[in-house]
Amino acid sequence: MLWLTLAAGCAIVAAIYAVLWPRPKAGMSRATWRALLLRWGHSAVWVLLAASFLMRASDTAVVAAQANLVAILGGLLYVTFLVTLAIERRR
Fold first, then answer.
1. Which of 44, 46, 55, 61 is 20 to 30 A distant from 19 in Cα terms?
2. Rounded distance, CA 86 to CA 27, Å?
3. What does the pLDDT read at residue 20?
4. pTM (2 d.p.)
5. How many folded domains does the chain comprise?
């Protein structure tokens, strides 16, 4: 039950960040990859965390173990998002 509650919370946060995201300053353009990462990266992190929690709720040990990989991917994406955001704020 705990894993399902956490997954639902992550899904709510992902939906919020799908609406709210860092917009570029007026008159400033972004590279396509940077625009995609800043637009969808944070939401994707929360979706990956939700997927990890749902996988942990599985009764299968193999699937539950693979949840760690999904969570690590979410963490790596989050670090990439933060670095890109920090670079973008300095411009």
1. 55
2. 19
3. 86
4. 0.88
5. 1
Q: What is the DSSP string of the chain?
A: -HHHHHHHHHHHHHHHHHH---PPPTT----HHHHHHHHHHHHHHHHHHHHHHHHHTSS-HHHHHHHHHHHHHHHHHHHHHHHHHHHHHH-
Residue 51 to residue 21: CA distance in whole angstroms: 21
Cα 15 to Cα 4, 20, 48: the distances in Å are 16, 9, 13
Report the amino acid identity of residue 41: G
Both tokens of 86, joined, read: 């920090």
pLDDT at 46: 97
Q: Which of 69, 68, 87 is nearest to 30 (CA)?
A: 87
Cα separation of 42 and 22, whole Å? 10
Neighbours of 68 (CB within 10 A): 12
Residues in the chain: 91
